[in-house]
């Protein structure tokens, strides 16, 4: 028995050595593995083949609702600067020091009866271009106020893409001040195809329409303010574009699309509306099934490359006729790709960034979890083969030596 077992062990070791020797060429030695790390290429702030921008202007009213009548507090409006702490969900007063028509390079303007842009003020914040108080009973009754930021810097590349950034803040105030949030230092990136996004740092205080006693400071969060497509920068002086809203689908809180609401059904970007869940304004930035839904689509965003000679921008309550109630949807329903955290938007870098990331309405080209085939290392297959061959060899030798468990009774 002892001699037979010793012989079996010797045979197994011999077979194993042969198997490993045969598999050796498939496994590279450590000093044969070459890892190539691509050289980091920094995006130049002033590309030689483009145009350097030193004083760009950004003009935007977000949507009609941001200058419309409110069911409480009088109206919704925009304010320059980053508003301080009101202490509670309450209506702002003229002497609170919360409202500003101008703060540094940021100002608030609204159209007058002649269609000209004029400075806004606390006294005119709830008036339409004709000087009448805005009301919730009309979808076209709105102040048309816009935030205007000068001093943008960056570049417009020869291929039509651009990287522009502005310094400054503005505040979006709803229900007369009962809920508000701010945007700081917006950054616009657009690629050669005219696709891009406007990103900014959001901040503010959280409350709820169901519980106005709630009041908490919210953390700063980089969010996508607007996603744009088909930007035409060939004019040389700037452009106006209506950000994506119509047909954009997001998770949570969005009413079903129907024949009755399809003309204005959609949403602001996912990270945008998710942040509004904290401010208490979520329902005003997507189709929620409310009576004010037609006033929620995004209005035109205008960029002028030289703030001293800005291009003409739409002036009026709705900000852009293409998004008015009754318009035909310009894009189909598209669902955002799933992400680990809906607020996981990269922080704004200090250098220009290129809009290569997928937009909210564009499905991700591949999943976050790699396929099993692509995840398997090239070394795994030969190792598994070697292990299998060794196992079969062991069984075969033990069988020949009659040492397998079911053969033991036959051993003399």
From TrEMBL:
Residues 1-28 form the signal peptide. Keywords: Membrane, Signal, Transmembrane, Transmembrane helix. The chain crosses the membrane at residues 379-404. This is Htaa domain-containing protein. It comes from Microbacterium hatanonis.
């Amino acid at each position: 028995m002892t001699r037979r077992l010793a012989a079996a062990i010797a045979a197994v070791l011999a077979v194993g050595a042969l198997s490993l020797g045969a598999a050796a060429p498939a496994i590279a030695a450590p000093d044969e593995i070459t890892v190539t790390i691509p050289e980091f290429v920094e995006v130049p702030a002033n590309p030689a083949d483009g145009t350097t921008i030193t004083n760009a202007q950004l003009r935007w009213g977000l949507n009609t609702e941001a200058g419309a009548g409110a069911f409480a507090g009088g109206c919704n409006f925009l304010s320059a600067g980053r508003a301080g702490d009101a202490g509670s969900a309450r209506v702002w007063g003229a002497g609170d020091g919360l409202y500003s028509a101008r703060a540094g390079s940021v100002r608030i303007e609204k159209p007058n009866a002649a269609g000209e842009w004029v400075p806004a003020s606390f006294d005119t914040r709830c008036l339409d271009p004709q000087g009448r108080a805005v009301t919730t009973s009309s979808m076209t009754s709105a102040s048309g106020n816009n935030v205007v930021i000068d001093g943008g810097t960056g570049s417009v590349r020869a291929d039509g893409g651009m990287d522009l950034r502005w310094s400054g803040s503005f505040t979006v105030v709803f229900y007369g001040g009962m809920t508000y949030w701010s945007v700081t230092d917006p950054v616009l990136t657009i690629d050669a195809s005219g696709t891009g996004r406007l990103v900014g740092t959001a901040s503010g205080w959280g409350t709820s329409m169901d519980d106005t006693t709630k009041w908490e400071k919210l953390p700063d969060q980089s969010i996508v303010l607007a996603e744009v497509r088909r930007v035409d920068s060939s004019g040389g002086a700037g452009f106006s574009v209506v950000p994506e809203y119509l047909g954009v689908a997001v998770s949570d809180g969005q009413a079903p699309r129907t024949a009755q609401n399809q003309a204005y059904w959609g949403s602001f970007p996912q990270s945008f509306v998710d942040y509004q869940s904290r401010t208490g304004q979520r329902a005003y930035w997507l189709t929620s099934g409310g009576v004010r839904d037609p006033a929620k689509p995004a209005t035109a965003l205008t960029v002028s490359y030289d703030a001293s000679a800005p291009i003409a921008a739409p002036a009026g309550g709705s900000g852009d006729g293409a998004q008015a109630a009754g318009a035909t949807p310009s894009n189909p329903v598209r669902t955002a790709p799933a992400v680990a955290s809906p607020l996981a938007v990269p922080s704004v870098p200090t250098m220009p960034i290129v809009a290569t990331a997928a937009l909210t309405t564009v499905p991700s080209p591949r999943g976050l979890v790699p396929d099993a085939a692509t995840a398997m290392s090239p070394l795994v297959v030969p190792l598994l083969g070697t292990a299998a061959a060794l196992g079969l060899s062991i069984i075969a030798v033990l069988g020949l030596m009659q040492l397998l468990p079911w053969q033991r009774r036959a051993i003399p």
